[in-house]
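WARN no homologs supplied; continuing
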Amino acid sequence: MQEAAAILQSGVDADQSRSSKVQLRERLSLSDGTALVVSNVIGVGIFATPAVIASLVPSPWAILSLWIAGGCLAFAGAITYAELAKLCPNAGGEYNYLSHAMGPLAGFLTGWTSLIAGFPGAIAASAVALISYSGHYFPAQTSSLRIASLSLGFASVSLSRQSLLASAVILVFAVIHILGLGPGRVAQKVLASLIVTAMVTFIVAGFLSGRGAWAHFHAVSNGFHSRDWLLALVPVMFAYSGWNAAAYVSEEMRGSGRAVGPALCLGTSIVLVLYVCLNVLFLLALPLHEITTTLNAGDAAAQRLFGVEGGFLTPVLLIAFLGAISAMTIAGPRVYFAMARDGAFLERFGRISPRFETPALAILLQAGWSIVLVLIGEFQQILIYTGFAIMLSSGVTVTALYIIRHRRGLTDHPIRTIVIPAFFLLASVLMIGNALYRAPRPSLLGLLLIAAGIPVFAFSRKRTTSKPTSRFPTLRLEMDPGDCSQ
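OK structure emitted
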């Protein structure tokens, strides 16, 4: 406990003096960035979404086309973000790119979405799912029965063994990543290696089992509309979400922004191959009508291929959840750190611990809010409401590439860096329009959550501009939005 208190105090009270701006050191390699992407993407989505997709698009080949299309779309996004990282190599991902292209408010609102729900909501969901799946081995210790509860009027805090253990997991990873990038990157690489090894083993063993039927691929389709295919692309992209993880740590990648692209593309390619192979295996093991009714396609396929009962893939899922929590604990705080450093958010979260050289307070901010979401149990609703906002953020970010290039007078670039981002942008527009048409209420609520960040931005700007001097220099908010060099 004394060590933990020292960590917190070092992040809060440290007096830094930098000649220009607070800068994170370049210590991440290509393998570190790739591991971050793989861990951030692979999770329960690949096992839970096949039923939803099969019910919308009841055709084996259409299902495979969705996973290939989703992977290609994620890859197109990776190429786009790689170009943006070259132009604007600072930390923060979408916040960084939109700030330079459209001004500090536009950047802040996408960062606000990441803070209020994007990362903390996903961390809370992953931590609770981790403890829930652990109940397969320790049912008594992971019970969700309430131990105590407290009503706050607008919300109710519930304590259970499940919520307390989930909170403890979040806090442990926060401490690991506060202690330095060294311990954090080792943990991330180990978890990513384990999840890839486990999935490759499952895929190879499944194909070698000699069970299943290729006749499942010749099932007659019940028919579906193109709108259904487009709607089914949304859960597919949910399963691919996280392909942009390395962009958040571009400032810490060796070689700066130029190292981000290879990490994004390599990580996304690994996930694409794994996801397509897994879905081929699911369709080989199970007829289409069974996939539509299963909660976990992986366990159902394992039962058919290996003759084992449910829970066969539980260890794989546990590793995936741990990897995802760790990856998001690295990526998310870089957004809030960048916002605070630029003067768009509360200044204290733009500080770096002088002892551990990590954005300690930003990590604690995210961990704290994640734990609050676990205790009040509202993360599922927040994720639903902000799903549209996160999709919108990625789509709008692509336009930043064209805006920054235009303002800087850049005309000499490969044709692929024009066409591929345009493909991603077109697909985003179609999905966003379809979401507004098919699910207007969650989409509009997501927009309201984004708009709630405007007064926070105004308050942060006022506090920043009211201080004539600061121990922690920030970027000038008056800079030319197209100039990424500052």
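Confidence is low (pLDDT under 50) at residues 1-20, 468-483.
OK
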